[in-house]
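INFO  loader      accepted 1 record
INFO  loader      residues=381
INFO  predictor   begin
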Amino acid sequence: MAEAYIVGAVRTPVGKKKGGLSTVHPTDLAAHTLRALIDRTGVDPAAVEDVIMGCVMQFGPQSMDIARNAWLSAGLPTSVAGVTIDRQCGSSQQAVHFAAQGVLSGTQDLVVAAGVESMSVVPMGSSITAALEKGMPFPFGEGWAERYGKQEISQFRGAELMCEKWGFEREELERYAYESHQRAAKAIANGHFRDQIAPINGVEDDEGPRPDTTLEKMASLKALREGGRITAATSSQISDGSGALLIASEKAIRDHGLVPRARIVTLALTGDDPVYMLTAPIPATHKALQRSGLSIGDIDVTEINEAFAPVPLAWIKELGADPAKVNPNGGAIALGHPLGGTGAILMTKLVHELERTGGRYGLQTMCEGGGQANVTIIERV
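INFO  predictor   done
INFO  writer      dumping tokens
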């Protein structure tokens, strides 16, 4: 049976909005990560068969197939193709899935899975705003309206609906967010991210964590919706960043003298209620565990994207997971969420954390627009 292995995983630091990475063109941001991946693995870049890159706002500087443009901007061989994909926040986790599936199918041996998003340069919603300005209809058409009605569909409403369904009060969300900042600050201070980051533009560390934040400061913030529980403090940060991984077959490992770091165990994908939007990681994780024959207790490290605090809190509650093993070095509330780059960044963090701690199994998941979720289970080699 064919296997797919992660042989390289690198990321930029995650920059905060208008921070140290905001002056870097998105193509150059992604190119930096691709170049670092090739340099660190030592692979012949001409042997790469495809570059699959996640990017959500494929507009302006992030349009025109940024995967191909970033590869060329990195000075890498013109013979290697690139494709840009969008599964909303899970875009570069899906890039990992597509790369692994190419290897598992036996049709490819060496594939790059990557992601990028500069939210400082291309703000969230840019493509939708441009369409509305030209008088084009909102992306949801008449068929959608017939099925779901013309109700508000947004991640902010979805987060509030989750709070109502699972009974999360604002204080619990803020305690979770505070812990995310504390874990992230401690991880940076202890150098846990140092080996996985390729510094750029003078930025060496993630810019988002606020080690001096307090529960009192969080409590003083205004809710994002009238009468709601969600605030900026319990939401992921607007960020800039990129990540890249090299996925290889056993043949490629032999032929190129590569060192396998993790084996892809299971790839799962599912959809859930698009109105709630953010709940799909729960059924997707159940599906992945069942497919792999593992239990949640077998998972040593989980990276679940903290789009909003109720997302990981509901996941932990429904899965019966140990909170200490979930986002052990903080999550997007502290470290930031550069949309299409986040999936590759989380997988990079997962691989390195398993290596650092000696854990065996890692699980990654994240909520995605449209009520979707990817789950990836890996095993440290």
